[in-house]
Amino acid sequence: MSHFYVPSAVTADISSAQNLAHLSPISSGLMAFQKRKGVGTILLTITVVEGRQLPVMDPNGKSDPYCIVSVGGQEQTTAVQYATVNPEWRETFQFEVPAIPQSDTDDNYGSCLIHYATIDIWDKDTLNRDDFMGRVMVPISTLNEQPTSGWYPLGRAAPKDNVSGEIFLKIQLVAKQPIPRWNVDTELLSLCKKKAGFELPFVSGDSILDFPGEAEHVEMVLEDVVVEVSKHRGIGRVYLTDFRLVILCNTSSHVGVGHCDMSMWVALNNIQSVDKGEDEKVVRRTAGGNAAFADVKTLTIRCLDFRTIYLTFMNSHQPALGVFFLPPGSHSSQSSPDSIAGSAHQLAVEEGEDASEQRLLDITVPELERLNSGDGGQSQFPNNSSHDDITRSSSHSSFQVLSKSSSSGSVEGLGILAGSGVLGVTCLAGTSTIPEKSIQNDLYSVNFLPYYVNVLYQRIAFHILNAMDSPPSKIFIKYHSTDIQLDYWSVYDYDQEYSRQGISSEWRVSRANLDFAICHSYPKFLVVPAKIEDTTLKGTAHFRCKGRIAALSWFNSKKGNFIMRCAQPKTGAMGKFSTEDEYVIRAARKCNPISDRLVIFDARSLMAASGNMLMGKGTEDTVNRYQGCTLVYLDIPNIHAVRDSIERLQGVCESSSQKKWLSHLESTQWLAYIAAILKGATTIARFIEKGVSALVHCSDGWDRTSQLTSLAQILLDPYYRTFTGFLVLIEKEWISFGHRFRDRLGHPSCPSQRSPIFLQFLDCVWQIYRQFPTAFEFTSDLILQIADHMNSQWFGNFLHNNVRDRHLTFVSRSTVSLWSHLYALQEEMKNTQYSLCSETLLPASSLRRLQLWSDYFLRYDETAWSAVDVIDIDEETSATQVKSQPDTVVWVPDERVKECHDCKQRFTRWKRKHHCRACGQVFCGDCSKQKITLPQFGYTNPERVCESCYQQNKMTSKEEEVGTTGAKLEVRTLLDGKQENKSDGEISDSDSSWEGVHENVYADDDDDDDDGDDNGVNSKNDTHEIKCVDGYF
């Protein structure tokens, strides 16, 4: 369940608390406030001021916008502003924010505690339905008494929504008591710092800072979530923040048979889709031996990094014995307070039942922690071992959950009734503190799980549609304001780079595109033949598609030849031509002192190029127009074929079937496309080695052209195989020359343009690295890091389609550069086997020599996970915690499973399903033959388990036997040594005493004496007893 937060120093009256006695420990995930007599509810004030540049919805070029403001179940509407796209409303609304579900009647709970304030903008139509114009969702967790004002960009509610513009809002919480920041932000930051890879370092001046660090705000928290990736499962807590989805699985109380540490995080931009599963019932077994069906909600999250996460949200129907809301103290920073049962019992004893009821509402967390920790004496919490209560530790927190067995009809003992954990608020129950009349009529908790899961689903779906327009990096910079220095935005400098290449006097730097007049997708400065005037460049821009003229990409200082790039010409079916374009190509061809031959590499196939001619485009006529040029087709598929290939590959990698793996992989055509790109780049490199110049283009010159030119330069120039050189190459050939990252990474406004072109390039680099591992200064980890953050959008390098868009949005001043993060990790990614190689690399492009990039595509495959992950023991984790067994297991529903978890054989009428009692997975009979006892789950007799759980249990048993056997051998050695020292045929008085020792060692130990000294050796009746530490004599 999610959690809610209450202001410090606020107390509730007894009548209000008793009215809530029938509720479970429900929470809003963020901020809701309790009603109490004399204080009133918190008021959320929202002022809708104005909007600007809203979308045009009417034929007259205007719109009639109005706003619907929703907070929980409350809704208010602004007036309609007619015939404008820059409306001014200046209307203020107030909403009550209570801590209990808002309802129309006392018996019907229609909606639950709020998480977000939603502002929808609509266009008013008289005759037709109103048109949706945009949505803003404001997390309540970011608000406080200080007014929050600013421009909020409008977001989509559906992929086809035409959304633009923003609105100005003023938001404030009005309360009589101070409202501190939600402490779970600090808790999550502390936990992420302990997890490797959860905080990303980056260079800022002379310092190394963490991203996202303190800028990250938690929006929702859900407890006791079963996380499943590639059929490996864990139990933990899910945080939804404004940066990512964080999953932290318990590595102490849940470690053991059948569980893995599934802790991970997913950037919101990396989420490809989220789907709600059908309602399910699962078997949940607890330590008391109780097995019952539990209602669950499921979400399936598919990520762009080939990761599919199944989240199962548990909801246990435990009887609610009574609920009081206990706010944290004003000086408390604990978001997960310790168990307060002992403190409650002590107060009840000291002050009596009536007085304790009011005192329980006023007690602060520090007092409870002091009383319960034993600082002021031993805790007075009664021993309930005689009853069927079970205790378990909540994920990543120190408090406990006490659940009453359903078989017990009495209400005894105290406990914290929090079936899914409570954060920031604690619920107390017990007969010694709560009158029995308050719990007679309402014994079971109200199920708010569907609401919380639905809110989480809606918020993630909203992020999928709008995260690319509101990158988290801008939130980070806004949080730190001017206190941060943004470095490594100038890794690539055109002047320095072309000076390093040593271009000859035959070339010059043109500033004709300084204001992007020639081509808005090209850089400001272009290197062209020195004989070409800027007026000629403007003339040839009309003949090349998108204005992408022929410009120098790389110059070979050894031979004087070069690589140029451009887009396809607009020849059309009628064979149009441009004398300016022909003159540019001829002048470039004459710049090569070795050979005046120029090879034009068309990345498309002949059929594709011919098809483009029918649409007014095409390719060069090297027979009649472009004399001295040779045309070569490289037959590389277009973006649509590549998109279909990656989708098929994702399906194959997610499939658990092991049969015909190579056949399924071949059917995706992914490696065939990689081979075609490598073959084309190698062909270009071979021609350059012969002294021939090259001109490369595809259709528009920003996809396959970038792949070929950049890969060819890696093969030819050893500088691009260094750490810095590789980053410079990406900046020059991909970012500067206008690869459409925004569209290719899947912006919702153009889903048909999504295609993993840049990922193909990285895959090709990995293939070259695998064949020449000593030729690169960096390891493959650098390639993997770039691939990950290409989709995460946490950094500003890959946010836009071209340089012009980056300048207009001030990317270098509003986001963090990915290169600053990579430079912080440079030492970790340094190749220790690197050897400078100035020779041209010619990798094999045959499918026989290529492999699937398993480090990327298969890192979340079930074969990449161990049965039980190795646990990192930190300073706060004891050895007993690490070895502790899980106290609950959730069985996988039968309906979800079609094949055995181990052997992958499909289930049939004769091949039945069997649940492993230790991990809950489903196996066939052959894979679950073993039987062991599982006392932690209440199984006193041997029960069916899978082979993995059996082997792990066997290893644990051997470790315990080693300690026991060692203690016995030590005693036996002492006895044997004494016997060897005896004289032949003589028995002294001391020998008689050793006979007593012998008898005591092997005697029954039912009458063990516990009064021995620290060494475990006692002296009694002149007979020496040796008592071992483990209890053996």
From TrEMBL:
Annotated Acidic residues bias? 1002-1014
What is one process in the GO biological process aspect for this record? phosphatidylinositol dephosphorylation
Domain FYVE-type: from-to ranges: 894-954
Q: Which Gene3D superfamilies match?
A: C2 domain (2.60.40.150), Zinc/RING finger domain, C3HC4 (zinc finger) (3.30.40.10)
- Which top-rank group of organisms is this from? Eukaryota
Record field: compositional bias (Basic and acidic residues): 969-985
Keywords, sorted A to Z: Hydrolase, Lipid metabolism, Membrane, Metal-binding, Zinc, Zinc-finger
Q: Where does the record place it?
A: Membrane
A GO cellular component entry from the record: cytoplasm
Identify the stretch(es) annotated as Disordered. Answer: 334-357, 372-393, 960-1022
UniProt binding sites for substrate: N638, I639, C698, S699, D700, G701, W702, D703, R704
Chain ranges of the C2 domain: 25-152
Record GO terms (molecular function): phosphatidylinositol-3,5-bisphosphate 3-phosphatase activity; phosphatidylinositol-3-phosphate phosphatase activity; zinc ion binding
What EC number(s) would the UniProt record show? 3.1.3.95
Ranges for the Myotubularin phosphatase domain?
A: 488-857
Instruction: Name the major location.
Output: membrane
Keyword Membrane carried by entry: yes
Per the Swiss-Prot or TrEMBL record, the active site comprises: C698
| Keyword Phosphoprotein part of the UniProt annotation | no
Pfam families associated with the record: C2 (PF00168), FYVE (PF01363), Myotub-related (PF06602)
Among CDD domains, the record links this protein to: C2 (cd00030), PTP-MTM-like (cd14507)
Of which family is this protein a member? Answer: Belongs to the protein-tyrosine phosphatase family. Non-receptor class myotubularin subfamily.
Q: What is this protein called?
A: phosphatidylinositol-3,5-bisphosphate 3-phosphatase
